[in-house]
Amino acid sequence: MGLVLVKEPYYNEAGYEILINTPDSLIPSALYSEKAFILSKGFVRTALTACPQGLQDVIQYLYLDKSGPRLLQRVVSDCQNLQKEVTTANVAHDNVMEDTGNGNEVDRQAVRKLSTGAMIMLKKDMDWLASFLGEHETKDADSNQGLTTT
What we know:
Blueprint: H1 26-49, H2 56-64, H3 71-88, E1 97-99, E2 105-107, H4 116-137
Helix pairs in contact: 1-4, 3-4
């Protein structure tokens, strides 16, 4: 089973596409997206602590290596920014593309205010990921330190 990475994954479930933008589906769709968002941060944590055998070099390159895209830094930064937006209630709801400054654009409507419960769960993962990142920024990012295989 996998999750298709689209703006509203709720409607990818079998038979749910006919519910797009109906009043009865807006809240379930938002909650489904919220859950997928939180679980994706848990995946990053799992990939870093219990890396599947044979993927250590890929995970190392993608998330930690200085020569790679440093996705862990981006995940932590994005979560911290989202937390600030939710805390200050400045989340944009218009369908506007915003330049993030690193050549990527973010659809601001895709990032909605999270519920209080989701923010608590996100903070737990975000704090752990930030701590893990901090520990590894001072170490040589080209080593496989911290990646455990399963």
